[in-house]
Design a protein that fits this description.
- By secondary structure, the protein is α/β, with parallel strands linked by helices.
- It folds into three domains: 149 residues, Rossmann fold; 240 residues, tm_1862 like domain (pyruvate-formate lyase- activating enzyme); 88 residues, no CATH class.
- The chain has 20 helices and 16 strands.
- Strands 2, 7, 8, 9, 10, 11, 12, 13, 14 and 15 form a ten-stranded mixed beta sheet that branches.
- Helix 12 links the parallel strand 13 and strand 14.
- Helix 3 runs parallel beside helix 4.
- The longest helix has 24 residues.
Length: 534
């Protein structure tokens, strides 16, 4: 091994969402929104890709140079291997296990001296070291692990890499250079819900990388200037408000700066409820992911919280909600599961997720179901992803019945509440109307900040009017459209022309999907990291 080791970090290889029955499945789209949050919304679903954030975070916090390879083809990965690396780290989720297996084989073939490190949720698979030819398995926080492996102190001052989500397509329209920086503020959540993989993967700890509001704001300023945006994701951390001192400090510094920003963050209902909606709006919160789970579930984070009122309060100041519910808890029956879904729909969230309870290696649900003999171990790991069929026996539902109830929940959300993009516009309009005459100058400024998008929104709504497939959806579109025109001005001839263009792009995307499939492959990206000063 060289005096200064050469390190390669790689995601698994593409393509994704192809029915090859070995490495991929049609329903394994590598897109958070299109595969989970706006599932079944078709052309109304934003097509967004992400960097492999964890690998970049590790690489940027090592004292030695390294390379990160995002979404290579297998051939591209092999070409990179042949350059000679001392360590090859592969990060993956469980459903991509066979891709990881193939990559380890290629490492042994083309770079036999390399030490192989496996990380990500795939690292939690029992007896992984007996199934694959690997040297090290990293389960949990990877920066300290790699630093120790290389002979450095596990302690570090976190350095934020330049990573982002990228919108690729909306309503069939290709989008270019729409980057939203992703700020890795921390990892995990201390609540330890039994179904939650991230919480248990990180030892039920709330690991804070950026420890102060000032540190987070400094990254907002730096990355906002680099990517010419005011929209940011605060991620890795699955319950941002679990550190109230840091969150309140961030609000104070954002208010003092007079900047208007849009923040995507995760927050449990109990902690969101400790804030006034106006305070969250002042901080820049734009979208908050809240885990509702189930009205029948005993999780303390939702106890005595009226989630419908909570979501309505956030919407009043223009904050959108992603509300996630879980299907197929053991207590779900054919009668009460739909009552549970109906309550979710009645809350009227802007985005919805309906995931099956997921017994993944490492969480207590997995251990319990394994002891009970309920895991269907003949189902390939490629299908362990909670968004098609379960991989365990349920006392009430067959696999096909479960798939049908999930699909129905998503479609009812889409048909009754309208496309999420329309709900988003409605929420921001409601926030504008509530805040534009506020006695609080910060909120008045935020109303005008939201209004900057209204011309674009009028065109989008007109396009949606042409494109929605159901009368119930058309009613939602026209209602929001009328409210927006009343609050601002009538849709102009130019905006009508833009809407016709959206109609054309939308129908063209539907044609491509029908005849050629809907997969959009993520771009390959190679990033050099010089090594941080230690």
């Amino acid at each position: 091994m060289s005096a200064q080791p050469k390190i390669l970090f790689s995601s698994v290889f593409k393509p994704f969402a192809e029915a090859d029955n070995l490495y991929s499945r049609l329903d394994s789209k590598i897109e958070l929104f299109h595969n989970q949050i706006t599932k079944y919304q078709g052309i109304f679903s934003p097509r967004i890709h992400y960097n492999t954030f964890g690998l970049h975070a590790i690489a940027n916090n090592l004292p030695v140079p390294s390379v990160v390879l995002d979404f290579p083809t297998l051939d591209r990965f092999i070409r990179e291997l042949k350059k000679g690396y001392d360590y090859v780290g592969i990060g993956s989720i469980t459903p991509n296990f066979n891709k990881v297996a193939r990559m380890t084989e290629e490492v042994r073939k083309h770079s036999p001296e390399s030490k192989i490190v496996i990380g990500g949720f795939c690292a939690s698979i029992p007896d992984l070291d007996k199934m694959l030819s690997v040297d090290y398995i990293c389960s949990g926080e990877g920066i300290s692990f790699m630093r120790q492996l290389l002979g450095f102190s596990p302690e570090f001052e976190f350095r934020q890499p330049e990573v982002f989500s990228q919108t690729r397509e909306l309503l069939g329209v290709p989008i270019f250079r729409d980057y939203h920086p992703f700020i890795t503020v921390g990892l995990g959540c201390p609540y330890g819900c039994d179904f939650c993989c991230p919480s248990h993967f990180f030892g039920k700890k709330h690991i804070k990388f950026l420890k102060t509001g000032d540190a987070i704001f400094n990254e907002i300023v730096r990355l906002g200037e680099k990517y010419h945006t005011s929209s940011f994701g605060l991620g890795g951390d699955d319950n941002f408000l679990a550190d109230p001192e840091r969150a309140r400090q961030l609000r104070e510094v954002v208010v003092a700066s007079k900047k208007q920003i849009k923040l995507f963050l995760f927050g449990s209902a109990d902690l969101v409820a400790e804030w006034k909606p106006e305070e969250l709006a002042e901080m820049g919160a734009s979208t908050i992911w809240i885990g509702r789970e189930s009205k029948l579930a005993p999780y303390g984070k939702n106890r005595n919280i009226n989630i419908k009122d909570l979501v309505a309060g956030l919407r009043q100041v223009g904050i959108k909600t992603i509300l996630s519910s879980i299907l197929l808890f053991d207590f779900h029956t054919k009668k009460n599961i739909w009552e549970d879904v109906e309550e979710h729909l009645d809350i009227n969230p802007d985005f919805s997720q309906f995931a099956f309870v997921a017994p993944f290696p490492g969480n207590p649900v997995y251990e319990r179901m394994k002891q009970e003999g309920r895991l269907l171990e003949n189902i390939p790991l490629e299908e362990w992803h909670a968004f098609k069929q379960p991989w365990f026996l349920h006392p009430e539902f067959s696999l096909r019945e479960a798939e049908a109830i999930q699909e129905k929940a998503y479609l009812e959300d889409f048909y009754r509440l309208g496309p999420s993009i329309v709900r988003l516009i409605g929420a921001e309009l409601e926030g504008y109307l509530y805040m534009k005459d506020s006695s609080n100058p910060r909120l008045r400024d935020r109303a005008q900040y939201l209004a900057q998008d209204f011309s674009r929104y009028r065109a989008i709504l007109k396009g949606c009017e042409y494109l929605v497939p159901k009368e119930s959806q058309l009613k939602v579109v026209k209602q929001v459209q009328a409210q927006l025109e009343q609050a601002t001005k009538k849709t102009t001839l130019f905006e009508d022309f833009e809407a016709l263009g959206l109609y054309g792009f939308g129908r063209a995307r539907e044609f491509r999907t029908r005849h050629f499939g809907e997969a959009i492959q993520p771009k390959t990206r190679r990033t050099n990291y010089p090594g941080s000063p230690d």
